[in-house]
Design goal:
heterodimer; A: mainly beta; Porin; 16 strands; B: alpha+beta; Alpha-Beta Plaits; 3 helices; 5 strands; globular
Chain lengths: 281, 104
């Protein structure tokens, strides 16, 4: 292999790594929101939410694990904003790398709320911007090298017994310095939840969830040309749990692929998992 | 050690006497579905000086608050407080903690 083609080979591996990076389209999760989808919950005015989390995914011979710290502040009773600080461990074949990944800023505004006895029905919009702060030059990369934006719309109903949510998100990906642009993504989610035993105010509380997460990704582009083995549709069924006590919550879930139609030759997702701890201060 | 115990006893007696002459407010609130989300109400109420015991009955949509003598909670204040906590305030009744009804 001559020098030029070696560089090309290295670039292609790095570029493709960036394409596949961020299989997670993680959005801020607040209070009783779904684990993988978004929900309309907003922390109370003046409240601070601290949420360290760990997430992991496997797709063929690629494995990614991310640690994150999400900090959210309640600007009003219906409007919150925050920052997501991720650290990522990536493994692809025999290569592995780790480092600070792409930092995001996000905001959520609950524009509609209908409260009744023991129940709340709400809708919110969400915006998130992910910056190119992670290192994209590692192999595999831990940052995407692009600035991306996510817009979301979400509806939720919670009662003493039942929960339901529906949401849609669109992620517009930017171009990195090499003019690689990961494909935009459309995500649609339907979620149901049940509290088997409605507990009192000072008691530990458990809610079980089942999410149906659909993802449609467009093909990535490299210098204006589509990359054939990128993008496509995946559908996940995702059982999850919230366990809360007073101002502390544990949330966990696993995304299991149930259907996929990926473009070209690509490995299907094997699984994704997420564990979040959360404190309200 | 005896002095510390005496101060603690006096403090507890003073506190009990103050709240015994205080007021219990019972507030009807809509949107109370889960204990975790209702914590914001407790946090906001505790920021008011003179607020003592707080209890939340999620099934009945009731928030019960004891306040010390001389402290009064008003409707506009509670409307704002619950709005900021993400819930809807509906109504409020109060009674004296020494037994007499003030506003049922």
């Amino acid at each position: 292999m001559n020098r030029v083609s070696k560089q090309g080979y290295r670039f292609n591996r790095r570029a493709l790594g960036a394409v596949f990076l961020a299989g997670f389209v993680v959005s801020p999760v607040q209070a009783h929101d779904p684990i993988f989808s978004i929900g309309p919950h907003v922390v109370y005015k003046g409240g601070i939410e601290i949420a360290p989390e760990v997430e992991t995914s496997k797709k063929g011979n690629e494995r990614e694990t991310g640690l994150g710290l999400e900090l959210t502040y309640g600007l009003t009773g219906d409007w919150a904003a925050g920052i997501d600080l991720p650290y990522r461990f990536s493994k692809e074949g025999s290569d592995d790398a780790s480092g600070v990944s792409d930092v995001s800023l996000f905001t959520k505004y609950r524009f509609w709320r209908h409260d009744t006895l023991g129940a709340q029905e709400t809708a919110a919009v969400l915006a998130k911007v992910k910056f190119a702060s992670g290192d994209e030059n590692k192999t595999p990369p831990v940052g995407t090298g692009s600035t991306d934006a996510i817009l979301g719309l979400t509806y939720g109903y919670e009662s003493r017994k039942w929960y339901r949510w529906a949401s849609v998100r669109y992620r517009r990906n930017g171009e990195n310095d090499d003019r690689l642009r990961r494909g935009d993504k459309l995500l649609v989610d339907l979620v149901g939840g049940i509290r088997p035993k409605p507990t009192g105010y000072l008691e530990p509380d458990t809610v079980w969830l089942l999410e149906l997460n659909g993802e449609y990704g467009r093909r990535a582009e490299f210098r204006g040309s589509n990359l054939p083995d990128t993008g496509g549709t995946e559908l996940f069924l995702s059982p999850g749990i919230f366990w809360t006590y007073r101002y502390f919550a544990v949330k966990a879930g696993v995304q299991v692929p149930v259907a996929s139609n990926l473009h070209g030759s690509q490995d299907n997702s094997d699984y994704r998992a997420r564990l979040i701890l959360e404190w309200h201060l | 050690m005896k002095k510390v115990l005496a101060v603690m006893m006096l403090s507890m007696l003073w506190s009990a006497a103050t709240f015994a002459a205080g007021t219990e407010y019972r507030m009807r609130v809509d949107g109370l579905a889960c204990p975790y989300c209702a914590y914001g109400i407790e946090k906001k109420l505790k920021a008011i000086e003179g607020v003592g015991k707080i209890d939340v009955d999620l099934n009945a949509g009731l928030v019960v608050v004891d306040v010390a003598e001389g402290v009064a909670l008003t409707e506009p204040q509670m409307k704002t407080l619950f709005q900021d906590a993400g819930f809807t305030y509906r109504s409020m009744t109060e009674k004296s903690l020494d037994g007499g009804a003030k506003n049922e």
